[in-house]
Design a protein that fits this description.
This protein is 62% helix and 6% strand. A hairpin with a 2-residue loop joins strand 1 and strand 2. The chain is globular and about 90 Å long. It starts with a helix and ends with a strand.
Length: 558
């Protein structure tokens, strides 16, 4: 027990750079290590094709995807991706690293926010590490998709807004920084984060803190004005130069919220699963707030109350939107990380005063984590023993580490000296980091198609340089993964129109059916190049998509 109290009372003696260095190390493992193991998925391909075409066309204000206008998404993350593509062509790891940087920024903004609200550096440190090791943020920080950008910028806006409201004076700089970051969030993914992250926060902020605009009205209005300027200059530009397309896109995007991926109202009530290894802690923290914590009403109570209201408001607001996807729950993990961190931090501070029920609750959570740490190496062995695993690095060494963590946890839960909640926290973080370091790559490879033959092999074919790539219009559309991997646009061609075909010669045909059958009545020479399977999922997977299997031919004059 003495160890816990010494830890909590001496946390201010730990230099701030050391806290930040540890957070940075955890973020590096969570978001950057082995981030290129899995090929680009559909969403990533769409984004990266758009970025590449910005470079090829030199048009950075009017994005295109496979030669067609793509105005559905604001361009800020695409500009970032274009800059990376210019510096590191075809480097998926670098593109995903940009998302990792955004995720790291989000984690640090949470650290700053919690530290600002409570003055407790260790609590803020815990919240940051929880967020950096939750399943949903880890996966979003490893993919070149745009959700992580908008929420990272919005959390920055929330931090500066809180600081402005809770500090003396007008706070012009902080309000303007809040407005600027809100604008960046809008330029990343439109109003998504305003609804999913900012609005739930404001509900909690107003209820808990009852902020006043006294003496701050002018900078607050300036914040709103700056937000509007940064947010809407690009949509305004599109509305002026592409009014019809812009209106159609706006109608399409708003309609998608009502008609695409429609799920029932209760669909998101499995939200704790998005926290991964912290799932049971998240449920426990909410239960703890309503059953134990409110009866004691200790200080600093505002952060826990705020985070609970913030979490529940986000859950309700997200549930009201008909379109639902689990990745949309990312903003809920931000207050969720505070829920979890505060529960464990408060347990550390009050370990001597915990009731029997509280101790049992903590032991249930910790025991589950310890058991998981025990069985992970065994499960991985049976799951991946026939795969490409290094005997020492993937089996012996991680087994010793995971079992050592399990012993560390059991000793901290059932030892003669009592319960040590700090071991539960650090042990859980270590399990997540160890899993990524030792098992992420071999486990992921179990699901990767070993017979994958990517169309990217054609990028360096000297006989195809400078030739246009086409697909038959009768086959509908082309999958964007193929366009990304091919490294060039693959545009439709009407093979039933002889004059169109002759005018396009020579060209590369990417098709599902054999080209001789499609061009049997034309005077052309057809050279078979190969069959390419861009599926990274295995053939027996339900996610295997036959649209990613194409035959490629070189079509020339006879």
């Amino acid at each position: 027990m003495i160890q816990i109290h010494r830890q909590m009372s001496s946390e201010t003696k730990v230099p701030l750079p050391l806290w930040c260095l540890i957070i940075l190390l955890v973020c590096f493992v969570s978001f950057f290590v082995y981030n290129d193991t899995v090929p680009a998925d559909l969403m990533e391909s769409r984004n990266l094709v758009t970025a590449r075409e910005m470079i090829n066309t030199g048009n950075y204000l009017i994005p295109t995807m496979n030669g067609e206008l793509r105005l559905e998404k604001p361009p800020l993350p695409t500009w970032i991706a274009a800059g990376i593509e210019h510096a590191f062509p075809y480097n998926l790891a670098a593109q995903r690293a940009a998302a990792g940087i955004a995720a790291t920024l989000m984690v640090f903004f949470l650290f700053l926010l919690v530290r600002k609200i409570t003055g407790e550096t260790f609590l803020a440190f815990m919240a940051a590490l929880v967020l950096a090791t939750c399943y949903n943020p880890v996966m979003m920080g490893r993919n070149a998709t745009w959700d992580i950008y908008c929420h990272a910028f919005m959390l920055g806006a929330i931090y500066f807004m809180w600081s402005a409201f809770k500090s003396e004076g007008k706070q012009w700089a902080r309000f303007l920084l809040a407005g600027f970051f809100m604008g960046l969030s809008f330029l990343s993914k439109g109003p998504v984060s305003f609804y999913a992250l900012l609005l739930p926060f404001l509900v909690g902020f107003i209820i808990v803190e009852k902020p006043s605009l006294k003496g701050k009205t002018a900078p607050f209005i300036a914040m709103i004005v700056l937000t509007l300027i940064v947010s809407f200059w690009w949509p305004t530009y599109i509305a002026i130069f592409h009014p019809e397309t812009g209106s159609a896109v706006a109608a399409k995007e708003s309609g998608a919220w009502l008609s695409h991926n429609v799920r029932p109202l209760w669909y998101y009530w499995q939200f704790p699963a998005e926290a991964g290894i912290w799932a049971l802690f998240w449920v426990t923290s909410l239960f703890y707030y309503f059953y134990y914590f409110r009866k004691r009403n200790p200080e600093p109570r505002n952060i826990f109350r705020l985070s609970v209201i913030w979490t529940l408001a986000a859950l309700i607001l997200l549930s009201l939107i008909p379109e639902k996807k689990t990745r949309y729950l990312l903003p809920m993990l931000i207050p969720g990380a505070i829920n979890i961190a505060f529960y464990l931090w408060y347990s550390m501070k009050n370990v001597n005063d915990m009731s029997k029920g509280e101790k049992i609750l903590l032991q249930i959570n910790g025991t589950l984590i310890a058991v998981i740490s025990l069985i992970i190496p065994i499960g991985i062995y049976f799951l991946a023993k026939d795969g490409h695993m290094d005997w020492f690095f993937h089996l012996v060494l991680p087994s010793l580490i995971f079992w050592a963590i399990a012993i560390y946890l059991f000793a901290g839960l059932y030892g003669k000296k009592g319960i040590f909640p700090n071991r539960v926290f650090f042990g859980t973080v270590l399990i997540m980091m160890s899993f990524i370091l030792f098992y992420y790559q071999p486990v992921t490879r179990l699901f990767v198609n070993e017979n994958r033959h990517s169309i990217s092999a054609l990028r360096d074919d000297p006989g195809l340089q400078g030739l246009p790539f086409h697909y038959p219009t009768e086959e509908g559309t082309i999958r964007m993964e193929l366009v990304y991997e091919a490294g060039r646009s693959i545009t439709p061609i009407d093979l039933k129109n002889d004059s169109v075909v002759y005018a396009a010669l020579p060209f590369v045909l990417v098709c599902e059916k054999p080209a001789p059958d499609l061009l049997e009545n034309l005077e052309v020479t057809i050279e078979y190049i190969g069959t390419f399977d861009n599926n990274w999922r295995k053939v027996d997977s339900h996610r295997y998509n036959k649209e990613l299997v194409k035959e490629v031919y070189l079509v020339k004059k006879k």
